[in-house]
User: What shape does this take?
Amino acid sequence: MRAANAIAGTLYYYAPVALLILCWDLGSRLGLLSADLLPSPEATLAAFRAVLDSGELAQQASVSLFRESMGFLASVVVGTVLGIAMARIEWARVLIRPVVTFFYPMPKTALIPILLLWFGLGDMSKIAAIFLGCLLPVVISSYNGARGVEPLLVWSARSLGAGKFGVLWKIILMAALPDILSGVRMALALSWLLLVSAELLLAQKGLGFMIGYYGETGDYATMFSAIIVVVLIGSISDRLFLALMGWSLRWRNLSA
Amino acid sequence: MAQPLGVKKPAGAWFTAFKRGPARFAFGVVLLIAWEISVDAGFINPYLMPAPSAIAIRMAKELASGTLVSDTVLTMYRAFVGFLSASVVGVVIGTLAARNAPARWFFDPLVSIGFPAPKIAFMPLFVLWFGLGDSAKIMMIVFTCVFPVISATYLGTASIDRYLIWSARNLGVSRRGIVWKVVVPAALPQILNGLQIAFPMSLIVTVVTEMITSGGGLGGYMIMAARDALSEQVFVGIFTIAIVGYVLLNGFDRLRRHLLRWHTESMTAM
Assistant: This one.
């Protein structure tokens, strides 16, 4: 019963999406939406099946996912370490913060051309674009999180016998985790934007390349199915991250 | 500020003085000098990474010829038009969704799917619909920036203290007046949060759309230079955009504080 309710709730929640698809279908059938401008749902679905069966979609998606995960994970690890170092070590803050505050507002996509020039068509230019683009948001959020850690927590842990590393790992990282994770969530959305942009601009593989390629060859149905796949991957990864965030912060609600 | 882990020796006077003054530029200056020296000494290939001096000279030339200024103006024009349109559309949809149940039912799932998705994937389709000119770029900026505005406006207007609305009604404010005189001002801090997320996004997207489709602007300038392997020009573009971004975002922050000077948020900050 409860499961049935949950399913009904989900269906009701996503009903507007179904409504839009219905309008799209009706518009295509009645000729209101020209097939040259927006392929019909049937054509899009057929094109989706074709690239799914041929294995092309899986291949391009795996290339994109590889680039995405490498660049994103690297920026999270390096950004968190740098941010916490800036919060805890005075000379690091004094030296690095001005550079970070200067480059933080820069539109990160501006780095794509030079990275394409440096690393060319392959994986490295996309990984570097994601890494550099996402680095500063993660640095700033972990800096803000680690800076706000209550000194009392640190002192208590010290007096209970925690070493310097233990304090860093168990107190500072944990107390800063909510801030770090919300920064990482912003970086996640940004990383997809950077990946798709870099792949649209210059690539020989990947989902962004697929969209650009089929757009140029005039196969709009395949292009549109790839667009939908990219949008869904971006949304679903955010959902998954949100679930991970809730799970890793579950201890916070106990005391509140 | 951060607390020391243990008992800390007092910092030397020179360090305190250094922190307050030159430290803000020290690391940047050291980086620039190291960069310059390594290019001159041949550690870095100037074709891949030209020396800062070469970039500065190139920038002066580009400024003198006027193309850099006109490209910057064009990029800012697109970003502003897109951002302002997204702000209006986002505030209207967000307010509507907060005050009207069918609208909330309709927009909620669309926003929750659309907000985190990389909307830039639609760019080839937008080019198909709106052509290669400004309109496709501006529509893309609106399409990207509208989501944080909708979401923030919704959160802001849905959580308004209803006593505020009742008091205003009681004092004779009309139903329409409520929206503009009570709801929007009370939600302003939240709305501005959304705009503060949307604004840098508009610059990010403007630059990319200019790279993907032709038509000038800083993004176009940079991608053309990159295609011709003119790395000096690419770096001129990067520094120009960095400076523009820095100035605009700091300006936005000041504007926010000015607009909210009546709000408790700015009073506690003082």
Remarks:
- The mean pLDDT of chain B is 86.
- Chain B touches chain A through 67 residues (CB under 8 Å).
- The CA atoms of residues 172 and 178 of chain B lie 10 Å apart.
